[in-house]
Automatic annotation (TrEMBL):
The keyword Acyltransferase does not apply. This is Rab GDP dissociation inhibitor. It holds the Pfam family GDI. It comes from the Eukaryota. InterPro entries: FAD/NAD-bd_sf (IPR036188), GDP_dissociation_inhibitor (IPR018203), RabGDI (IPR000806). Keywords: GTPase activation. One of its GO terms (biological process) is vesicle-mediated transport. Coiled coil: none annotated. GO terms for cellular component: cytoplasm.
């Protein structure tokens, strides 16, 4: 391996594949390596045999009658795509959209007062919704009218509030919104994981609600779209983009060592006794000491910031209370179950080409708060009805301890507990800025996503 590259990318998770695609388009000479023999890393979609091998080291039990292996593409990390969000914009900008097909998620639901209710997708659903009483609906309507009419340059639309300065709790107070409505707005629409947002400037929350309502308006049923054949299609699509622009891919390559010089600067990567050189390396935390006390050269390169517990559940029926939906999201706001963080349920089915006929895949996840993680997702598991089989995973969340500009080692973040990809795209923008020293600019191309 005498050839020198501009960038070596380690791991084929979505973040890494987006970056290798964008860097290849930018004219960088990219080598992309992964220890696994499949694309996607932590964001892969597995067939039935791979799923059972990963979690049980066994074959799928014949007695469960789960159908053919190839009918399955089970996501390891459950996330949906906001139809007007940054990932959609990135897919359109790079033209990666042409490698993918999407389907709209049938509905978004929220758990409140012991029952699952649909998040209204239009005015008539809002009027009928049991989420709010008659007077509260009027107050909520005034709040949403304010958001729709708000214009940065027109102080008359601000109702005396500077949303860049005042906390979100003051905006709620201004419109007299009840605690339950605040839960619904902050967690089912702004998609915050906890209540810390209430004390921060309102602008961020209002921007999130506007993104949600814009995404909801795009296709009508829910704000989310999902790729046919699973989320593992996303990193593969960006890998294809990289290859078109000269990127080189090597799967099933064990990384033996990250080589640095006497000053601690990156030199290359050793695999199978050979070292390939490059100016920089980008990779997911598992390649840089994640799970070990110390990184390369006695220096900690990544730090654990928390853990996520996830349950992949196989069902032979739709989730009760979702109108027999072929797919849905259910958010259990933390206040409803006495927690600090929300619990998420994401469900897809055979109609998305990710499971056999009449099989649903439901994933329950949350941020770990106690020493008994599986007990923390019980409120979500109890909403699923009969579960044919389930696989529990406990995943540490890592992020880099340094920006990487000093040693040319740029590390991405682990995939968090959010139900969408907006934080993944934020990480892409952040790493690009660190690597290139300039912001990533996506030019607008008005292309509609078919879903």
């Amino acid at each position: 391996m005498d050839e020198e590259y501009d960038v070596i990318v380690l791991g084929t998770g979505l973040t890494e594949c987006i970056l290798s695609g964008l860097l290849s388009v930018d004219g960088q000479k990219v080598l992309h390596m992964d220890r696994n023999d499949y694309y996607g890393g932590d964001s892969a979609s597995l067939n039935l045999t791979q799923l059972y091998q990963k979690f049980r080291q066994s074959e799928p039990p014949a007695a469960l009658n789960l159908g053919r292996d190839r009918d399955y593409a089970v996501d390891l990390i459950p996330k949906f795509i906001l139809s007007s969000g940054e990932l959609t914009r990135m897919l359109v900008h790079t033209d990666v959209i042409r490698y993918l097909e999407f389907k709209v998620i049938a509905g978004s639901y929220v758990y409140r007062d012991g029952r699952v209710s649909k998040v209204p997708s239009n005015q008539s659903e809002a009027v009928m919704s049991p989420l709010m009483g008659m007077f509260e609906k009027r107050r909520a309507r005034n709040f949403f009218v304010f958001l729709q009419g708000w214009k940065e340059e027109d102080p008359a639309t601000h109702q005396g509030m500077d949303i860049n300065k005042i906390p979100m709790k003051d905006v709620y107070a201004k419109f007299g919104l009840e605690a339950g409505t605040q839960d619904f707005v902050g967690h089912a629409m702004a998609l915050w994981l906890d209540d810390d947002y209430k004390t921060r400037p309102a602008r961020e929350t209002i921007d999130r609600i506007i993104l949600y309502t814009r995404s909801m308006a795009r296709y009508g049923k829910s704000p989310y779209i999902y790729p046919l054949y699973g989320l593992g299609e996303l990193p593969q699509a960006f890998a294809r983009l990289s290859a078109i622009y000269g990127g080189t891919y090597m799967l099933d390559k064990k990384i033996d060592d990250i080589v640095v010089d006497a000053d601690g600067k990156f030199v290359g990567v050793t695999s199978g006794g050979e070292t390939v050189k490059a100016k920089r390396v980008i990779g997911d935390p598992s390649y840089f000491g994640a799970g070990k006390d110390v990184g390369e050269g006695g220096k900690m390169r990544v730090v654990e910031t928390g853990k996520v517990v996830r349950a992949i559940c196989i069902l032979k029926h739709p989730i009760p209370g979702t109108d027999d939906a072929d797919s849905c999201q259910i958010i259990i706001p933390q206040n409803q179950v006495g927690r600090k963080n929300d619990i998420y349920i994401a469900a897809v089915s055979a109609s998305h080409n990710v499971a056999a006929k009449d099989v649903w895949i439901a994933m329950v996840s949350t941020i770990v708060e106690t020493s008994v993680p599986e007990r923390e997702i019980l409120p979500g598991l109890q909403l699923l009805g009969n579960v044919v089989d389930k696989f529990i995973s406990l995943t540490p969340l890592y992020e880099p301890t340094a920006p990487g500009t000093a040693d040319n080692i740029f590390i991405t973040k682990s995939y968090d507990a959010t139900s969408h990809f907006e934080t993944v795209v934020e990480d892409v923008f952040d790493v690009w800025q660190r690597v290139k020293g300039e912001p990533l600019v996506l030019k607008k191309r008005e292309v509609e996503v078919e879903a």
